[in-house]
């Protein structure tokens, strides 16, 4: 919820702004303009910001310092972003349709920044963009899943040593995801409501429900999405196996 701007700032806040923000503003505008190659203006209204500060907090007392630090970090991130773009402009890599790792270079910049062609970030991006084996997971997601499996294996070894007997862990998360969907649909009345049932079958025209792990979702833990007549249950590597019944809208997406 938006709060109305403060009509007047207290003396301690306005004094901190004059001392710590006002002198830095033109300097920061120059820095950003130099990084991005054209004039930029910083427009921050402290009267709109100050009402959100909690009572007796750093932000309430040192509003100028808060504004300064926000912009200072933004300048650093701008610089990092532009520098990375510059590196990509010289050389990078990709995966060919034949499955070959290819180093590529700018036609006018052969021999420049050659160490960057196979930088870790570039390799990850290339592998993620490459044609994948049949399956629902990208390269990055597969790597995160493998790490998770390795951690489970380590814990299992410790438990086996503790008990002096082989004990098997069976996470079987995917089965639980499908079970959560069935419970959700039953609770929403798909088994008794003809309208809901027909709406689902019409939207999911391929009669297929798929579980997949993706890089990013809109919900916090898991979500349901429709794509080309297929119903997807999806989550992210960091949320894989976490609160599988927290999914967001179902009826609303049909």
Features:
single chain; 254 residues; mainly alpha; 3 domains; three-stranded mixed beta sheet; two-stranded antiparallel sheet; 9 helices; 5 strands; 47% helix; 11% strand
Provide an overview of this structure:
With 254 residues, the protein is mainly α. The protein has three domains: 11-87, no CATH class; 88-129, no CATH class; 173-253, no CATH class. It is 47% helix and 11% strand. The protein has nine helices and five strands, in the order H-H-H-H-H-E-E-H-H-H-H-E-E-E. It has helices at 11-21, 25-36, 46-49, 58-61, 63-90, 120-129, 139-163, 173-188, 194-203; strands at 91-95, 101-105, 209-213, 222-227, 230-235. The strands form two sheets. Strands 3-5-4 form a three-stranded mixed sheet, covered by helices on one side. Strand 1 (91-95) and strand 2 form a beta hairpin. Helix 1 (11-21) runs parallel beside helix 5 and helix 2 packs parallel to helix 5 (63-90).
Mean pLDDT level: 80
Strand order in the sheet with the most strands: 3-5-4
What does the radius of gyration come to? 26 Å
Percent in strands:
5-15%
Question: What is the structural class?
Answer: mainly alpha
Distance between the termini: 29 Å
* Count of all domains: 3
Q: In this structure, how is the largest beta sheet organized?
A: 3 strands, mixed
Helical amount = 40-55%
Q: How many helices in DSSP terms?
A: 9
Count of distinct strands: 5
Described by the principal axes of the CA atoms, the overall outline is extended
